[in-house]
Specification:
The complex is a heterodimer.
Chain A (H helix, E strand, L loop, with lengths): L2 E8 L2 E8 L4 H8 L18 E4 L2 E4 L12 E3 L12 H8 L9 H14 L5 H7 L10 H23 L1
Parallel strand pairs in A: 1-5
Antiparallel strand pairs in A: 1-2, 3-4, 3-5
Helix pairs in contact in A: 2-5
Chain B lengths: L25 H6 L14 E7 L5 E7 L1 H4 L4 E6 L30 E2 L5 E7 L2 H8 L3 E6 L6 H4 L8 E2 L3 E2 L2 E3 L8 E9 L11 E7 L2 E6 L4 H12 L6 E4 L15 H12 L4 E4 L2 H7 L6 E9 L5 E13 L10 H5 L5 E11 L12 H19 L3 H7 L17 H12 L11 E3 L2 E13 L5 E7 L5 E5 L8 H13 L6 E5 L15 H25 L15 E3 L2 E3 L4 E3 H7 L5 E7 L4 H4 L3 E13 L5 E11 L6 H20 L30 E6 L23 H13 L15
Parallel strand pairs in B: 1-14, 12-13, 16-17, 21-22, 28-29
Antiparallel strand pairs in B: 1-5, 2-4, 2-6, 3-5, 7-8, 9-17, 10-15, 11-12, 11-14, 15-16, 18-19, 19-27, 20-21, 20-26, 23-24, 24-25, 27-28
Helix pairs in contact in B: 9-17, 12-13, 16-17
The chains are: A alpha+beta, B alpha+beta.
């Protein structure tokens, strides 16, 4: 259809993409920028595998066009770890075995990362509810909840130490 | 030479098997660096989209592509009118050659199901390919399709065997000797779709007469075999790669027609092709669990002894496939009963191929059998656990063989205690909390302990690390991790010094990652090849005058801490390889089951206890708690095994309460083709799940003592939930899924 020059800020870097205006943010990330950590599970906003943060807010990247996201800060799974150091959410997912096949995992982790900004002290049932936009067919849900709870707990401990 | 410190027994890294080790590929998966089929990019890649039939039975009259051909970016189309002719592959599981369907794609004008690929468009971008596909107009001559049992009974038939593996019709004892009370019930289960999170995808590229295909698959060697026959090229010209598969649950086990379409298009257009099915297309054109109607009759004495079981299954099959749901197996083998009759009747439907979905036969058959036993327990006023113990099979009642090992009694005992089962008042509707009825139910879980031949290669490297290769897969099953543990323990190396590579058809042979068989099959092959590599290393040391181990017999050596120890001296892998000027030390071994298969019956067992809350006004069922206790032999990695069992239980809750693919009868199309209409459990649907293991090795399955854990988790769950729903409400739902409308 119409090609456009699209400027995207992803994980702090600017990418210039020549793409069809119908290109979703998900496909721009995967097929043009080659950041394939963000996954396509349903391409219709039902599974959460494509979750990324746009200006700090989690969204399904399959439900938005790339051209609509110019000038916004996009954070994907590739941008979460600082050099070699994993984000505590990533480490907790490994420690608690919060995944099996790993395909939904980038979306789960981005969603969990965002959840903890939306609600830093969620209850167990809030975690379950807030994470229900991310389907895991391997059924790792109890482990995902345990991983997020651990991050919450360790942050609370840190806060206490600092308060002292 | 420094003093040799032989580590104390408890400090040795030799106990890696059995330890909870975090997934070795975990870092790749949490950083987005694990690459699945559709993540691969190849030079000059173009995109394919398949166009699927909108009728379920009939023939193509015309494909109008005038408008589509003019669409931007289009490279071309393939249909049955211009696709090159393909060779028909043999259909033989033992020869690694099975397709989901019994027909080849784009070869004729016959329509067998709604969702059959009728054309493929290739374009420069995914957007252009999708847009062009929407302009293709297909005209059909439509026949009335069969997508319901009632419409197809005239064509029903009784197969001799289930896929050639086991008899489909079984009779033992004398059914006229059944006495006592008789319970006859009908249970039904719907079509279910696997819905792995990764849609089936392929990136195919040809270099002359050689094909490389990144594939989301559970069987790289099976894919290679079929592709070789279909395109008439030798297997060594084909490389099928699947380093990570985003879930399969059976749907990626055999060869898909779309895989052949992808490879065909790449060859026809002389360009690498990426093809991914959409979520909707997974519902129309991948395999699925067949629907069943199960007529079950139990006869028992007043004191609870089964005198006869008759389990007649009517299963969906398709006009283009031969897989049916073998529900009766559980009734033949789970309980001691002298008189048994099992039958399977199949009815062909116009749907995409039926196939294996997690515990095919056991998941559905145990729903019927375990529900019926619960009904019997109420008739006889005997506790459900006690009733099962009264009919405990101390040997396999079907073949008379002793079990290789069986601790089901301990599963009942521990599960019952963990759950608090003895506090249960069996009276339905006896527990209420606010507007919710509470109920407790239980069932037995079971799945065969399958092992098949497999091979692996172990290479000890000059830097003292080891590399393990096998053409197996990690579909979320923890294969990378358990194979690392097995190799590391055998070689006396820490986990970090062992690297396992898999998912490449050029690697040593491994079977399909199905049937919960990978741990016992490939795990044993890795152990044996590691032992063979170690033996070579020991012989090198023993024969080398410069080695501190010169002259020591290999049987007096052990592998430890990156080298070999005897009582008095030691040598390292690094030194042995250096002194012998070798690039590495390598051994490949094939491990296969032997005569033990004839002497013993191999089965995993478990007990599942479920608690439900049923909303008395809305009929909504929530599973508040599940306790599962499993006897699966030795547990290689409790952490990953527990996750797999939890996953099976979660899928079992989906089976019990949600999952159902609905077809409309007029055109035979699936109408629940997305994750909002076909619901699967989400995080908020899942509450407390406790999994425990008996963890006693199976002394006969292989030297590892481990049976697989992939499938048993789903078995028994639907039965336990249905029984809990009855206990809560007094309503016996015999038709899955247990949706609110059935309780109001």
């Amino acid at each position: 259809m119409t090609d456009a020059t699209i400027k995207l800020q992803v994980n702090g870097e600017e990418y210039i993409v020549e793409a069809d205006t119908r290109t979703t943010l998900l496909d721009a990330l995967r097929e043009h920028i080659h950041l394939t950590g963000t996954k396509k599970g349903c391409d219709q906003g039902q599974c959460g595998a494509c979750t990324v943060l746009v200006d700090g807010r989690r969204i399904n990247s399959c439900l938005t066009f790339a051209v609509m996201n110019q000038g916004k800060q996009i954070l994907t799974i590739e941008g979460l770890a600082k050099e070699e150091t994993l984000d505590p959410v990533q480490s907790a997912f490994i420690d608690h075995d919060g995944f099996q096949c790993g395909y939904c995992t980038p979306g789960q982790i981005m969603s969990a990362y965002a959840l903890l900004r939306e609600n830093p002290n969620p209850t167990e049932s809030e975690i379950r509810e807030f994470m229900s936009g991310n389907i895991c067919r391997c059924g790792a849900y109890p482990n995902i909840v345990a991983a997020i709870e651990e991050v919450v707990k360790s942050r609370q401990k840190m806060t206490k130490v600092i308060a002292r | 030479m420094a003093t040799i410190l032989v580590p104390k027994e408890e400090e040795r890294p030799s106990e890696l098997v059995g330890r909870s080790v975090s997934r070795v590929e975990g870092r790749l998966k949490v950083t987005g660096e694990a690459h699945y089929a559709a993540d691969y990019d190849v030079d000059s890649l173009v995109y394919a989209v398949v166009i699927q039939s909108t009728i379920a039975s009939g023939r193509i009259i015309k494909i109008d592509m005038k408008e589509a051909e003019r669409a931007p970016g289009v490279l071309g189309f393939l249909t049955h009118q211009n696709a090159p002719k393909l060779n028909t592959p043999i259909r033989d599981f033992m020869k690694e050659s099975v397709m989901d369907e019994k027909f080849l794609p784009l070869q004729d004008d016959v329509i067998r199901y709604a969702g059959q690929d009728v054309a493929l468009v290739v374009a420069d971008t995914f957007e252009n390919a999708s847009a062009a596909a929407s302009h293709v107009k297909v005209t059909y001559e439509e026949k009335k399709p069969i997508v319901e049992f009632n419409d197809g009974m005239a064509q029903a038939y009784k197969p001799e065997s289930f896929m050639g593996f086991r008899p489909a019709q079984i009779k033992r004892g004398d059914m006229t000797l059944s006495n006592g009370i008789k319970l006859e019930r009908t249970y039904t289960t719907p079509v279910e779709h696997h819905n792995p999170m990764e849609p089936s995808s392929w990136v195919a590229s040809w270099n002359g007469n050689s094909l490389t295909i990144y594939n989301s698959t559970q069987w790289v060697r099976g894919n290679r075999s079929v592709l070789s026959q279909v395109f008439g090229i030798p297997v060594d010209k084909i490389r099928v790669i699947s380093y990570f598969t985003g879930g399969g649950f059976g749907s990626k086990g055999f060869d898909s027609v779309h895989e052949i379409v992808a490879a065909l298009a790449a060859r026809h257009f002389l360009r690498p092709i990426k093809l991914s099915l959409s979520r909707q297309q997974l519902f129309t054109s991948t395999t699925h669990r067949p629907a069943t109607i199960q007529n079950l009759s139990l006869s028992a004495t007043r004191d609870g002894r089964l005198t006869a079981i008759k389990h007649d299954t009517i299963s969906q099959i398709t006009f283009s496939g031969d897989f049916f749901e073998p529900c009766g197996g559980v009734s033949a083998e789970l309980y001691a009963c002298p008189n048994v009759e099992i039958s399977h009747t199949v009815v062909p439907f116009n749907t995409a191929g039926t196939g294996a979905m997690r515990a095919p036969g056991e998941a559905t058959g145990s729903f019927a059998l375990e529900s019926a036993l619960d009904e019997l327990s109420y008739e006889l006023k005997i506790d459900p656990v006690e009733l099962r113990m009264m009919n405990y099979a101390n040997e396999n009642p079907e073949d008379g063989n002793p079990w290789s090992s069986k601790y089901l009694d301990e599963c009942y005992g521990l599960g019952s205690t963990q759950f608090g089962w003895t506090r249960r008042n069996p009276e339905p509707r006896s527990m209420k909390q606010g507007r919710h009825f509470l109920g407790w139910g239980m069932a037995t879980a079971m799945y065969p302990g399958i092992r098949s031949p497999a091979a692996a290669k172990v290479r000890i490297l000059p830097d003292g690390r080891a590399l393990v290769t096998s053409a197996t897969h990690d579909i979320g099953t923890g294969t990378y991790t358990i194979l690392t543990q097995i190799a590391a323990e055998t070689l006396g190396l820490p986990i970090e010094k062992v690297k396992v590579e898999m998912g490449d058809s050029s690697m040593p042979f491994a079977p399909v990652s199905g049937g919960s068989a990978t741990a016992a099959s490939v795990g044993t092959a890795v152990k044996e090849s590691a032992l063979a590599a170690l033996n070579k290393t020991m012989l090198l040391a023993a024969g080398d005058t410069k080695s501190p181990l010169y002259g020591v017999r290999p049987e007096d050596m052990i592998a430890e801490e990156g080298g070999i120890l005897s009582e008095r001296s030691s040598d390292s892998f690094v030194e042995i390889i250096r002194r012998n000027k070798l690039p590495f030390i390598e051994a490949e071994a094939t491990a296969a089951p032997g005569e033990e298969q004839e002497k013993f019956s191999f089965m995993s067992f478990g007990s599942v206890f479920a608690g439900v809350m049923v909303d008395s006004e809305l009929g909504e069922v929530r599973v508040s708690r599940v306790v599962g206790v499993y006897d699966v032999g030795k547990v290689i990695n409790p952490k990953t095994a527990r996750s797999q069992l939890i996953g099976g239980i979660v899928m079992g809750i989906g089976m019990a309460l949600m999952e159902h693919t609905v077809y409309e009868r007029v055109h035979g199309r699936a109408i629940t083709t997305n994750l909002a209409d076909y619901t699967v459990p989400v995080n908020a649907d899942i509450n407390k799940i406790d999994v425990e293991f008996i963890d006693k090795p199976d002394p006969h399955i292989s030297s590892l003592g481990a049976r697989g854990v992939g499938e048993i988790g789903i078995t028994g769950v639907a039965g336990a939930v249905a029984n809990a729903v009855y206990h809560a409400t007094g309503k016996r739902v015999r038709d899955l899924p247990i949706t609110p409308d059935k309780l109001l």
